[in-house]
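Bench notes, afternoon.
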Amino acid sequence: MRPLVAVIGRRAESVPILRFSATLAAEAICEAVYAAGGEPVVLHGPAADPTFGLVERLERFGGVLMPGGADLGPERYGQSPLPETADVVDFQDDLDLATARAVTAARLPTLAICRGMQVLNVALGGTLHQHLRETTVGHRNGVHEVRVARGSRLHGVVGSERVPVSSYHHQAIDVLAADLVVTATAADGVVEAVEHRDADILAVQWHPEDLHTSSASDAALFTDLVERAHQRKDHR
């Protein structure tokens, strides 16, 4: 049977085909997990308390995927908002930060993507650049190359020291949390991937779901998550 992979839902105030607010997941994320052999399940955070029972609920899953999304509130890492920081959703911040702490404590197999990586860093004590300055690297909407650290878990997954990635972000890791290790960078020094020193967590700044059907290195990230989820399921 396919292992269950919790895709942390995004809260939306309105959706054209529904009469009410909604808990959503990007179709590309779910397709990528499914194509890798997993069963994606969108995890809903109750409106009254998005973190209620979260630890116990996550324990039912073989793996967790923390997807991209809006800016993380800068007060969560001790800063005041800049003009470029926008679309902060307190509810989502509560849910995602609690998820990051829960998967770390429970050693749940996890893949964090874009905002997911930023949330992980903040949850563990790091900070963010609220707005990256323009460089020769197309972080905000483009494909660029990243350098992968030889010997890292990421290197073992993607099988190369240089991989092209689809990028869509304007925030990035500034001060790295003590329990994380940088395993990939862009040419301008922006952190592109991190791994947890002890927990079963791999995180990337780019969006592997964008190119998972055509990029072997991106597809490998989802295959790796599903394989880790299989192992957890088999060992319980």
